[in-house]
Specification:
With 207 residues, this protein is α+β, with helices and mostly antiparallel strands. Helix content is 35%, strand content 26%. The chain contains 5 helices and 8 strands. Helix 3 crosses helix 5. The longest helix is centred in the C-terminal third of the chain and has 22 residues. The two termini are 27 Å apart.
Length: 207
């Protein structure tokens, strides 16, 4: 029995579906229609609330080339720019992304475009860009919203994801295979308690 799936099912069986939807749905996020209620329970309640306290998951840091990912643009009613980044399984070697820290983008300095220039000039341009620290943008408003799916809010910046690197934490054992026997039942109980606490703290409803 998978402890994570068991906890998700226990939460769905214990708390009315409409109440879960209200508590887990962001008002302005365009991704809401693309993420299932199970993914929201996993990422907001279990990963973001329960596992954070229990410290059951070991993660490793990984830097990902965003050009290898699928990027979808949204602009929410607050006029801030939001993007969904879907990371292919091949990029993470089939492992799950547990959290995302930041995206870093090295901008091209004025006059350093790679247009009609010689190979030497282009090579020098790339070298200068690689060592430039004055033209680096960093965004840390990232949230894991689905399986290897990251929501990025760049505020007023219409982000260019070419030359962007994203740092994430990979969970080699995201399904908690080391949790066995009666501990799985206990984990399910804690999942329900965590969901009730989340709802109370998010929308002020006592379940």
């Amino acid at each position: 029995m998978n402890p994570i799936n068991y906890a998700i099912q226990r939460i769905k069986n214990s708390i009315p579906k409409e109440l879960l939807k209200i508590a887990l749905t962001e008002e302005y996020y365009g991704y809401n229609n693309n993420v299932t209620i199970e993914e929201k329970i996993l990422n907001k309640i279990i990963k973001g609330y329960l596992l954070l306290d229990l410290n059951l998951v070991t993660t490793i840091s990984k830097k990902i080339d965003v050009s290898k990912c699928n990027v979808t643009y949204y602009q929410n009613p607050t006029k801030e720019y939001e993007y969904i980044i879907e990371v292919p399984s091949a990029v993470t070697n089939g492992k799950s992304i547990y959290s995302a820290s930041y995206i870093m983008y090295n901008t091209i300095l004025p006059g350093m475009g790679l247009g009609n220039r010689s190979a030497v000039e282009n090579s020098m341009s790339r070298l200068m860009q690689a060592h430039s620290t004055l033209n680096t943008l960093v965004v840390n408003r990232l949230e894991v919203v689905g399986e290897n799916t990251i929501l990025v809010n760049t505020g007023a910046i219409n982000w260019v994801f070419m030359n962007s690197i994203m740092e994430v934490s990979i969970a080699p054992d995201a399904n908690l295979s080391h949790v066995k026997g009666s501990a799985i039942l206990d984990f399910g109980d804690m999942g329900v308690l965590a969901a009730k606490a989340w709802i109370r703290n998010t929308i002020g409803v006592q379940v």
